[in-house]
Amino acid sequence: MSYDDVEIEDMEWNEELQAFTYPCPCGDLFQITKEDLRIGEEIARCPSCSLYITVIYNMEDFQDTSNRKTEPAKPQPVAVA
Amino acid sequence: METAMERTQQALQEDDEEQQEIWSWGAGTDGQLATGRLQDEHSPQLLCSLSALGPINFLSCGGAHVIALSPGGRVLTWGRGTSGQLGHGEMVNSLQPKAVKALESFTITHVSAGWNHSGFVSGSGAIYTCGDGSFGQLGHGEFKSLCSPVEVSFFSSKHVEQVACGMRHSLVLLRGNKDNQVYGFGFGKRGQLGISTEKVKSTSLPQITMGLTNVRIVNISANGDHSAALSADGSLYTWGRGFGCASDACIPHHVDVALSLKEVALGWNHALLLTSEGEVFMLGGHRHGALSGPQKTSLTADASGKLKEGIVRISADHSETKVVQIAAGAEHSALVTDNGSSSVMTWGWGEHGQLGLGDTNDQAIPQVVSLAHISAEKHPISRVYCGSGFSFVLRTYDSDSQMREGT
Ligand SMILES: [Zn+2]
């Protein structure tokens, strides 16, 4: 069962992971890539646990795979590795 | 008024003979367990290196970092630091507890660890924040992250008493006021700031939380997209994301449980309530203890009875054991009983070993965590603290216990 339903605008673009992310209760992040979204995938998984969320978005917003900006409003500060 | 924390501080300062143990377990891949290893632990780990740094009387556990407060108001942090939440002046993880140097000249009296941000309150009533600021949750009027604690200037002429950091928002409680005493800032889409009857996406400057006029608030809590406050007469107010099937609340509303409450602990989908009688109730959490597998028993089937809709009573065990403290992780829960050994019990989601029961199973009802005793004669007092997917216990041995037991 999906842990939660999350709107794409509430997810954060993570430059390092090249994915949209949302906090997972285990402490890690649910992740989904632009390519996933382009092909209509709506499940964002956490690499550390069995939980997943359902991402709510308009598939049309991700159809254009050229360099069109699809990042959400708030840029994620880049973490120094 | 003397707070519980001040009393604890005095007690600890007066007694140098006191021994303390610090235990941790659960998700550990960001160094949040302070074991020096980057791995999960399914059983309680005794942390000798942390104990060696001196007594600790309060912990706050966030998404994957921990803030520890010493009796003298010194602050140590460790765990995930990639958003600057450790306050060490850099954006890196720390496997070992390290003092927050930027706060060394202040006596810190209250701390809170959110998902990826941190808040610190000094004895003189100033508040400092650091970490992820993308949603305005640091309160500085901008959306930048900070790797060293910076004073929130909005409160510079006010006396801050407490801070509570949630997933992407923060709450502040001022001292003394009867009105305008709670403020919110950061992400507000689920109503968790309580600053408007209409939903506010976010604010990077603190705003007054509505609906708490003529109520003296003594405690605030935040976790996930939830917010809560307890009044001096033991009434509970909640706002933000609704529990269970309840809808979101944009301003605080009184939760009528017809009981006087002593503590509230918020998870991401549940709240634990501790009554002054030592009973525990849970709000929401319909999947608590059944997250990993849908086929497992849901809590409602095991709980002894439903009070009001969505509120269940939690039984510590079969006897009339009283509960003295509660804590909530994102999806797990913990309590401390007042039996002679001050037992710690856990239940909820266990996939990362956050229940400390030696496995990764979920538990629908509280189970005793086995913590070895250093001394059979001495009387331990346990305090439990939960982060998103991990847990800590501070266990202090009271040197007066033999006398006490003799009476
Ligand atoms: Zn996870």
Which SSEs are present, and which pair or pack?
The complex is a heterodimer of chains A (about 80) and B (about 400).
Chain A: E1 5-7, E2 12-14, E3 19-23, E4 29-32, H1 34-38, E5 43-45, E6 52-56
Parallel strand pairs in A: 1-6
Antiparallel strand pairs in A: 2-3, 3-4, 5-6
Chain B: H1 4-14, E1 19-26, E2 41-46, H2 48-51, E3 58-61, E4 65-69, E5 75-79, E6 94-99, E7 108-113, E8 117-122, E9 127-131, E10 146-151, E11 160-165, E12 169-174, E13 182-187, E14 202-208, E15 217-223, E16 226-231, E17 236-240, E18 249-255, E19 261-266, E20 270-275, E21 280-284, H3 299-302, E22 311-314, E23 323-328, E24 332-337, E25 344-348, E26 363-368, E27 379-386, E28 390-398, H4 401-406
Antiparallel strand pairs in B: 1-2, 1-28, 3-4, 4-5, 5-6, 7-8, 8-9, 9-10, 11-12, 12-13, 13-14, 15-16, 16-17, 17-18, 19-20, 20-21, 21-22, 23-24, 24-25, 25-26, 27-28
Key features of this structure:
heterodimer; A: 81 residues; mainly beta; Microbial ribonuclease fold; 3-stranded mixed β-sheet; 3-stranded antiparallel β-sheet; globular; B: Methylamine Dehydrogenase, Chain H; Methylamine Dehydrogenase, Chain H; 2 domains; 4-stranded antiparallel β-sheet; 41% strand; binds zinc ion; repeat (chain B)
